[in-house]
Amino acid sequence: MGLPEAFITKYEHLLGDEADAFFKSFDQPSTGGFRVNPMRTTPSDLDLSDPVPYSQWGYYGKVAGHSLDHQSGAVYSQEPSAMFVGEVAAPKPGQRVLDLCASPGGKSTHLGSFLQGSGLLVSNEIMGKRAKVLAENTERFGLTNTLVLNEDPTSIAKTFPVYFDQVLVDAPCSGEGMFRKDPDAMSYWTPDYPIACANRQREILSEAVKVLKPGGELIYSTCTFAPEEDEQMIAWLLATYPAFEIVPIAKTAGIIDGKPEWADGNPELAGTARLFPHLMRGEGHFVAKLRLKTAIGTTKKERLQKGNLSRDQQQLFSDFADEYLTIAPDKRQLLTFGDQLYLMPENIPSLQKLKVVRPGLHLGTFKKNRFEPSYALALALPTFKFELTISEDDWQKVVHGDTITVDELPIQKGWVRLICKQQPVAFGKVVGRTIKNFFPKGLRFNVH
Ligand SMILES: C[S@@+](CC[C@H](N)C(=O)[O-])C[C@H]1O[C@@H](n2cnc3c(N)ncnc32)[C@H](O)[C@@H]1O
Question: Any idea which positions bind S-adenosyl-L-methionine (predicted)?
């Protein structure tokens, strides 16, 4: 691989004897991986023969994008070194967690697996188009207790001061760990690029620190090897905010200690983690975990977001819930944005001043005199009153947007959840013997 000259000189100097093995690793194929979704039945035909040693849900291998396992959210494709970040965070059920730089959602879906539908996950992405992709991925994975926002870190810090148990900053970086997977990433690289990225990372971190509660944890990660963005960033953080202490990360499978000598020599920096492609099976990452002893942000009196359904909307939704749902959602958590209905997580601050992509689980749309359930709801519910198992051929028709015809139906008329090989696919509407297609237009695809 044609690595930039200045990159070679820099890492020859930093890595010494090890540099050759590091450079050679760029000529090897990139390592693929996927995580299974613990809230779904694990597909019996998935190849789980090669587990990622540090990840309870991770495996080496590849899952096709246009497959049932991917579409239904039974798996999430993620490069194995990126999986280490979620495992270091490992939030506990019930905690409040912020993923500040979250799109496309690899880490958010992983954090969601730890939270098991409890607590709160705020998944934020600053770029509008990327925030939409993030929302689609959290929905595909069936996450329920999640707010998806499209904000800058300053607004997030203003809305959620001293609020979270954990914040993940998976920072925008010079992406040196992406060179193998995406050689185009090399074209952005100049010797000054890590310095420019570090400036932006300091700005992001200066806001991120304000949202943590005392005792809360900051997880900082990059997919680059540049010391300016890695150990030096943590050295800067500790010098600027002495209320933080490093929580040493346990290492296995070729993951090594951070390098104090690449920053200010503080031996505690060895508690951070480096993932190098010539030492472990992955593309490369840096991860640090820090605990905050006393709050940096200033608490404000929280104004909570209230539910806002009109009487008519309440009636339409409760008619639907009585007929079809096996669990009744709490009315106080129902929130409309225009004609869209959401189930917001409990006790969240007012969302009024924020760019909200999803204020919780999208339940559906109010149409004239009826309620139409959403695709996100089909993928999030553990059970639905009327379920219909379809063949893989019919699954292909559904994701393509076609109607299907079946002989035996669980109801004469109305909503059914379509299931294929135990995975939720979408809602369909029974009309006679055909099932009308409600697979979202923007997500349809042709399998072949
Ligand atoms: C490394 S990527 C995140 C990957 C994601 N965490 C995952 O695991 O799928 C960094 C993200 O930070 C976003 N970003 C860029 N500039 C930012 C800024 N100034 N503040 C916050 N996020 C920013 C980028 O758009 C990008 O989506």
Answer: 125, 152, 170
Structure token digits, residue 291: 């605990």
| pTM strictly above 0.90 | yes
The answer to whether domain 79-292 has CATH 3.40.50.150 is yes
Active-site residue, 173 included:
no
From ligand 1's centre to the CA of 126, what distance in Å?
Answer: 7
- Asked whether 200 lines ligand 1 (CB < 6 A), one says yes
Measured from the CB, is residue 104 less than 6 Å from ligand 1?
A: yes
| Any atom of ligand 1 within 6 Å of the Cβ of 204 | yes
**Does the annotation flag 170 for ligand binding?**
yes
DSSP 79-134: -HHHHHHHHHH-PPTT-EEEESS-TT-HHHHHHHHHHTT-SEEEEE-SSHHHHHHH
Where, residue-wise, is CATH 3.40.50.150 in the chain?
79-292
pLDDT digits 0-9 by tens, 159-185: 999 999 999 999 999 999 989 888 888
304-383 fold: Nuclear Transport Factor 2; Chain: A, (3.10.450)
Supply the CATH classification number for the domain 386-448: 2.30.130.60
pLDDT for 230-273, tens place per residue? 999 999 999 999 999 999 999 999 999 999 999 999 999 999 99
